[in-house]
Amino acid sequence: AQTVTQSQPEMSVQEAETVTLSCTYDTSESDYYLFWYKQPPSRQMILVIRQEAYKQQNATENRFSVNFQKAAKSFSLKISDSQLGDAAMYFCAYRGGSNYKLTFGKGTLLTVNP
Amino acid sequence: GAGVSQSPRYKVAKRGQDVALRCDPISGHVSLFWYQQALGQGPEFLTYFQNEAQLDKSGLPSDRFFAERPEGSVSTLKIQRTQQEDSAVYLCASSLFQGPSYGYTFGSGTRLTVV
Q: Cβ of A106 and B42 within 8 Å?
């Protein structure tokens, strides 16, 4: 079974600074997708960024980028120029290529200090 | 609708009571999922519908949990004889189709507290 591990229960960053959230996963599949979701106090899971395993290029969405290390099974999220609105729980998630289920990590609570 | 709508937003139930949680997905979305998120944890898969067919219910924790989507749109998750361990946020998500190219849109969930 696939597992997703987020080893940082909490992180903090100063406004305008950069922070990196860590995620590792375990799978025997060769085709899969990785995601970072943001969950603010409103509880809605919001997709931040996604990465297809077959793509070597790291995904980027504005201030959000990932460092995807397939051999190491590592998928970290970098947030640049952090804003107060970035404060939330962040979840790393895995989905097999032929599957529909998302497997989530336990999350990292990000605090942004003004 | 524009997003996935869930109701009620909060539900307090006495142990042993039956509850029904509603999910109204984005119009036209074929796939619908239920996830359970315990306090301090990530969401865990409960069940999956494609239109009105429940294709996977492997994540339902016990036979007290039952989900339906009779007309292929609105879905209801029912929990019978609630227990304290059922306390969690129940998230619903929908997707236009099943394939991995299609992203999921989540609702804001129902927080169930069993007292």
A: yes
Residue-wise pLDDT for B11-67, tens only, equals 999 999 999 999 999 999 999 999 999 999 999 999 999 999 999 999 999 999 999
DSSP B1-63: --S-EEE-SEEEE-TT--EEEEEE--TT--EEEEEEE-TTS--EEEEEEETTEEEE-TT--ST
CA separation for the pair A97, A52 (Å, rounded): 9
B chain contacts of residue A107, beta-carbon cutoff 8 Å: 40-42
- Phi/psi at A73 (nearest 5 deg)? 55, 55
Contact B108, B43 (CB under 8 A): no
Q: In angstroms, what separates the C-alpha of A39 from chain B's closest C-alpha?
A: 9
Q: State both tokens at A53.
A: 């395993």
User: Taking CA A46 as the corner, what is the angle to CA B41 and CA A52, rounded to the nearest 5 degrees?
Assistant: 90
Q: Do A47 and B104 touch (CB under 8 A)?
A: yes
| Exposure on the CB side of residue A38, measured as CA atoms within 13 A | 14
pLDDT tens track for A50-69? 999 999 899 999 999 999 99
**Whole-angstrom distance, CA of residue B36 vs CA of residue B79:** 12
